[in-house]
Amino acid sequence: MPELPEVETVRQTLNQLIKKKTIEDVVITLPRIIQKPDDVEAFRTMLQGQTFHLVERRGKFLRLLLDDYVLVSHLRMEGRYGMFEKEDPVDKHTHVRFVFTDGSELRYTDVRQFGTMHIFEAGTDLTELPLRQLGPEPLEKNFTPDVLKGRLKSSRAVKTQLLDQTKLVGLGNIYVDEALFSAGIHPETVSSELSDEQIRRLHKCIVRTLADAIAAGGSSVKSYVNGQGEMGMFQQQLNVYGRKNEPCKHCGEPIIRFTVGGRGTHICPRCQPAREVSR
Ligand SMILES: [Zn+2]
């Protein structure tokens, strides 16, 4: 599933590709992608004649700003956007096509069909579901160690808490494992029992992991590609995710995999001891 760095990479790419393009028509071949409005035909007519002005992001959601509306799009497992010309053959997994007045098309393709799109009147999307319930953005200046501490007040495992988008947005299974490794924290640590020092370290590692991944264009584990079909390069920098039995880059101990809250989890057992060893 694309996480914050991949969605941010798609945002940056889409922003360049569709800015100032005007929608002539929308072709929807899988109605259940459209969550709002209920009527797919209304979705189509609302967007006809609208021009894209800016692509923003909230957590793992894309916010595509038009004249009168905001299109909120979540890629979920494998959704992706691509630019095409009208005459290009249409892939069987393409479910929504935004046909522009200049003859180009933005196509939404989704093999797993879990992605969603919602339309809101301009200025209303952030205070409505699904965006209303989201936690703070980890890359904004107001995300401090104290804010993180407040979001970690829970008896749940720290990994489970960090994956909860209502507590903090953007982290998924890859980057949560990477951030916890960099911070030297075991993922099953009860989140309210983290020391202030551990929270400071975790805060720094979350911000750095996400920023480094954005700089590398995201990861391409499971064939993830960004909005222009380019593979992200961050998977080469992964320290634990997907590296079961490979030596830890820090201490040489083999990486192990187990599940936390039902999610496959990778750690270095020496760098992330279950109880913190003073060093
Ligand atoms: Zn290690």
From TrEMBL:
<feature type="binding site">
    <location>
        <position position="93"/>
    </location>
    <ligand>
        <name>DNA</name>
    </ligand>
</feature>
<keyword id="KW-0456">Lyase</keyword>
<keyword id="KW-0511">Multifunctional enzyme</keyword>
<keyword id="KW-0326">Glycosidase</keyword>
<feature type="active site" description="Proton donor; for beta-elimination activity">
    <location>
        <position position="60"/>
    </location>
</feature>
<dbReference type="Pfam" id="PF06831">
    <property type="entry name" value="H2TH"/>
</dbReference>
<feature type="active site" description="Schiff-base intermediate with DNA">
    <location>
        <position position="2"/>
    </location>
</feature>
<feature type="binding site">
    <location>
        <position position="112"/>
    </location>
    <ligand>
        <name>DNA</name>
    </ligand>
</feature>
<feature type="domain" description="FPG-type">
    <location>
        <begin position="239"/>
        <end position="273"/>
    </location>
</feature>
<keyword id="KW-0479">Metal-binding</keyword>
<dbReference type="InterPro" id="IPR010979">
    <property type="entry name" value="Ribosomal_uS13-like_H2TH"/>
</dbReference>
<dbReference type="InterPro" id="IPR015886">
    <property type="entry name" value="H2TH_FPG"/>
</dbReference>
<dbReference type="Pfam" id="PF06827">
    <property type="entry name" value="zf-FPG_IleRS"/>
</dbReference>
<dbReference type="GO" id="GO:0003690">
    <property type="term" value="F:double-stranded DNA binding"/>
</dbReference>
<dbReference type="InterPro" id="IPR010663">
    <property type="entry name" value="Znf_FPG/IleRS"/>
</dbReference>
<dbReference type="InterPro" id="IPR012319">
    <property type="entry name" value="FPG_cat"/>
</dbReference>
<feature type="active site" description="Proton donor; for delta-elimination activity">
    <location>
        <position position="263"/>
    </location>
</feature>
<dbReference type="InterPro" id="IPR000214">
    <property type="entry name" value="Znf_DNA_glyclase/AP_lyase"/>
</dbReference>
<dbReference type="GO" id="GO:0034039">
    <property type="term" value="F:8-oxo-7,8-dihydroguanine DNA N-glycosylase activity"/>
</dbReference>
<keyword id="KW-0234">DNA repair</keyword>
<keyword id="KW-0863">Zinc-finger</keyword>
<dbReference type="GO" id="GO:0003684">
    <property type="term" value="F:damaged DNA binding"/>
</dbReference>
<comment type="function">
    <text>Involved in base excision repair of DNA damaged by oxidation or by mutagenic agents. Acts as DNA glycosylase that recognizes and removes damaged bases. Has a preference for oxidized purines, such as 7,8-dihydro-8-oxoguanine (8-oxoG). Has AP (apurinic/apyrimidinic) lyase activity and introduces nicks in the DNA strand. Cleaves the DNA backbone by beta-delta elimination to generate a single-strand break at the site of the removed base with both 3'- and 5'-phosphates.</text>
</comment>
<keyword id="KW-0227">DNA damage</keyword>
<dbReference type="Pfam" id="PF01149">
    <property type="entry name" value="Fapy_DNA_glyco"/>
</dbReference>
<keyword id="KW-0238">DNA-binding</keyword>
<comment type="subunit">
    <text>Monomer.</text>
</comment>
<feature type="active site" description="Proton donor">
    <location>
        <position position="3"/>
    </location>
</feature>
<dbReference type="InterPro" id="IPR020629">
    <property type="entry name" value="FPG_Glyclase"/>
</dbReference>
<keyword id="KW-0862">Zinc</keyword>
<keyword id="KW-0378">Hydrolase</keyword>
<protein>
    <recommendedName>
        <fullName>Formamidopyrimidine-DNA glycosylase</fullName>
        <ecNumber>3.2.2.23</ecNumber>
        <ecNumber>4.2.99.18</ecNumber>
    </recommendedName>
</protein>
<dbReference type="InterPro" id="IPR015887">
    <property type="entry name" value="DNA_glyclase_Znf_dom_DNA_BS"/>
</dbReference>
<comment type="similarity">
    <text>Belongs to the FPG family.</text>
</comment>
<dbReference type="GO" id="GO:0006284">
    <property type="term" value="P:base-excision repair"/>
</dbReference>
<dbReference type="InterPro" id="IPR035937">
    <property type="entry name" value="FPG_N"/>
</dbReference>
<dbReference type="GO" id="GO:0008270">
    <property type="term" value="F:zinc ion binding"/>
</dbReference>
<dbReference type="GO" id="GO:0140078">
    <property type="term" value="F:class I DNA-(apurinic or apyrimidinic site) endonuclease activity"/>
</dbReference>
<feature type="domain" description="Formamidopyrimidine-DNA glycosylase catalytic">
    <location>
        <begin position="2"/>
        <end position="115"/>
    </location>
</feature>
